[in-house]
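Review form for a predicted model. The reviewer records the input and the model, then writes brief findings.
Reviewer: anonymous (R2)
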Amino acid sequence: MRQFFLGVFFFFFFLHYCFANIRGKVYDNQKRPLMGVNILLLDSSASIILKTGISDENGLFEIVISEPGIYRLKINKINFEAFDSSRIIYTEDLVLSDIILHSRPKQLQEVSVTNEKPLIEMKAGKIIMNVEQSISAAGSSVFEMLQRAPNVSIDNNDRIALKGRQGVQIMIDGKLMVIQGTELVNMLKSIPAAALEKIELMSSPGAQYDAAGTAGIINLKTKKEKRQGYNGTATQGLGQGVYTKSNTGLNLNYRKDKVNIFFNGNMALRKGFNKLDLDRIFIKNADYNGSYKQDNYAVIKLQNFGINAGIDYNLSSKTTIGATVSANKTSYTFDGENNGRLYDSSRNYLSYFLSNNHQKNSGSSIALNTNLRHSFDSLGRSLSFDADYAKFVADNNQTQATNYFLPNGEEEKPRYTMDGTLNGYTDIKAVKSDYVHPLKGNTKLEVGFKLSAVVADNRPDFYDVSNGAKIFDSSKSNHFIYHENISAAYFNYNKDWKKWSVQAGVRYEHTRAKGEQISGGQSFDRNYGQLFPNIVGSFTASPKHQFSLSLSRRIDRPNYEQLNPFKNYIDPTSIHQGNPYLNPSFSYTAELSHTYNNRFSTSFSIAQTNDVITQVIILDEDKITLVTDRNLAANRVYSLSGNYPLKLFKWWTSIASANLYYSIYEGNLSNSPLRDGIPTAYLSSNNSFVLHKNWSAEINSWFSSDQRYGYMYLRPMYAINLGIQKQFWNKTGTLRVSATDIFRAQNPTGITEFSNYREFFVVTRDTRTINCSFSYRFGNSKWQRQRREGGADEERRRAGSGTQSS
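Model under review:
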């Protein structure tokens, strides 16, 4: 290990010092060093920009030259006269004479610059949804905004898919989320969309990102103040559907000289309902063998309070250190009623049950980060280091009481009441470092490593309290402990030519995972290492036509909830159980993209995922359904997608997105052979209207045709959202009013089908709402160029408490 770190040190040392540069120093006419001066290296005719740079606090700059030749320099800074050099003949390291910039006779008056971003942007390797520009974000949750993002779809079990593929990883400010499954969904539903600046969608991330996520990564970027001095934004929102929802946010920032201090606080109170109608049909020897008809109705309350605070300090113009702390508290209550009716093979009405399910769950988290970022020069040579610690604690309680009756109303068997508690925690430690080094000939090298250690400890205890006494039920209780260590290193090579560019990278990840079920004696131990290559080649055929081709391999590890073998009793006829023998899924993706006129983007991709993790329903002789996860053999997806921004009129901007895909699943689970797929169309339209005198409006819509996810088939869904906005007081105050899902048409309906079981379902939720929000910006109005953000891409994902909701 010692030799390894010495080798890394000398490698970086070699990269830093083995190449020659042009160096110089810039002063004003009073011989004071000038910081932030723009340096342009031009060809001999001064018609083509070859390199750029910027001076540091001592007025120093340097430019890397890839080969000897004749060049010119152009140097400029606001309020100073520009400087143009004579021809520079460069053969080796060159130190220029001091350069003096003269002040202009008249200073420029302060101006206010407004740069309204579009709602949807297409950038290299990602699609960006600028949530700040969305009027319909008022009163919505982060989870609801994801539903409206291009190429994103969500099924009836709240599983997120990107371009028709499940296995998406969620990041917040570049940090992968630890929690997954139900806990992650509840958190996303409780965070107000007003806390976000943008949503980034990456279907083929580079090697510098964690290899997790067979479908890619969705990065949620929270708001950050970029103005100098003391600034803040206060937001209050209120929504009304069947139930009331509200959110409050406060962002504070102080930025001056070498210090930047920030605080963000958000609180959300959301109440809704979940209505689930099930028709469960049992099949034996291909014939009808009885059924359950169930009506489920639950009222759900979500409360969330979160803060994020931190400080950045510039030790010098090249070195910044920082620290952040994030804390979050979520409360989730679920009050459900379940009416189930049982029919025999002759369709005779046999019995029914009435079940009340009450859950009161709470979760808290704290995350600490320290970071350092150093820029060796103005050319992009940099080194960063991050250390993270996070802890998530769950305290969940469940009571389920069931009465059983015959069709005439007589009691069939005694009332059964079950109490359960699930206490657990997830502990995460991680360190990472990244180094970026520009080389000769428009070439850049990136290397880095990451080490992470996770411990998850969950203990569900169940008690039979039917007769008043609290009797421990060892058959339902459990204690599951999970340890995971991942070591990773990556290498990225970037090269630009006149018309071609290439990014080639590879990431190595070694995983050591161990799980142990204390009460049942089950355990597993896995130890494996994998390479994850990623290559992207781009070609500029003409100023209006650019093409790119990407190839990548990624992994989707089962989350802790999926691995935990304990049984969670959803209702008297349904049990959810994890599977400790799940294997990770591996995907291979090829994507060809075309961009026209730097605006219209079209891509075609083929993705193959092996050992895809799929939900399966196993039926026992008592017609009790066990919901669990298994590895299906493969999933292959052919996808054609496009994003097309249109300026229809001066006052009307429209962005149309389309994703047409064909998804095929292959395998055999629960004695049900599967080789099937259907074509699916996902279409969305985002329209912005600039009205008179600080008024604007928005109409957003999306439509999804039939979809298939393994053994589940979903019928078409769509939604239309409307919004209007008015700005006040020199645009410091903003009032937004919106209506979401006005036709209540985004509720999932479909069928899950196995050889011995068929389930029809209809889900109805509180999606049609009227929302109103008001935000006020206060403080200094002067802007500063935003510096590169600190922080590492950390692993905060894949833990689950096992809590289920209908």
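Findings: The radius of gyration is 29 Å.
Further findings: The longest helix spans residues 2-17.
Recommendation: see findings above.
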